[in-house]
Amino acid sequence: MDNLFKDLEGIGISGVEDINLFEDGLKKDEKPKISIKVKDAEAIIYQRKVTCPVCNKLFMTSSIRTGRIRFVDTELDLRPIYNGFDPIPYDVVVCTHCGYAGLNKFFLKVSEFKAKIIKTKISVSYNGKEYPKVFTYEQAIQRYKLALLNSVVGHDSNGMKAYLCLKISWLFRGWQEQLREEGEIGSKRIKELKSNELIFVRKAFEGFLIAYECESFPIVGIEQDNLEYLISELARRLGEFDETRKWLSRVIQRQNTNKRLNDKIFQVKELMNKGIMT
User: Fold this and answer.
1) Which of 173, 195, 215 is the last residue of a domain?
2) For site-directed labelling of 140, which of 80, 199, 208, 273 has its Cα 20 to 30 A away?
3) Coil, helix or strand for 110?
4) What is the mean pLDDT of each run of 10 residues along the chain (278 residues)?
5) Which of 248, 227, 81 has its CA nearest to residue 159?
6) Which backbone phi and psi does 243 adopt, to 5 degrees?
């Protein structure tokens, strides 16, 4: 498989090109760094202290003052959009001492078994990295990939790994949007970022398919009808319209979906019928 974690070599993590991302489920050239565009970043981002549950050392991480940003809408693949600021890059916490990384919501919830594996498979080679207060998309993607690797070696659920892949695809999309806003349109770099976005859309699609069959709902907080819808939308973005139809029909047959989800279903069907993937 493609080495999804190649860009972690800069922080000492190597030799993971053959790692399997998802576990079998049971039935039921150097780029310039781009700063994320913000409105008064100093007022939105602050540093907080965290004690790592794996190595028990204290470190600082950037966090968002949620009261300073305004939610606008969600895109068809459930990516949240905020007015003038993208908080997604800040949803992963990375211990700068041992390399343990995970989503904010789950960072402190690490089992003794997983902590031991992380120490033996990640911490021993992790060479540490200090991040600035405001992340570039490139830095945010590196942090998310480290969280994904932690999730893989720690045997987290396929749903969790799929969710991380989904969020990584959002970061690649956000990076493209930022470049376009800065006047970079149709460049080789944007095409590469789009290709990487779709790689992680594919991984999220595959992971959620496995999770749907073997995990209990809600899966990483996603209820069944929402996951069926999400799978259909990921299939559309990959051009797999038969899969889109199949998963949309499951949602529609429930007949108890809310108006917001029904509106998104209608939009996905319209795009699918026109053969539109993006």
Assistant:
1) 215
2) 208
3) coil
4) 78 75 60 51 91 98 93 97 94 98 97 97 93 95 98 97 98 96 93 98 98 97 97 98 97 87 96 93
5) 227
6) -65, -35
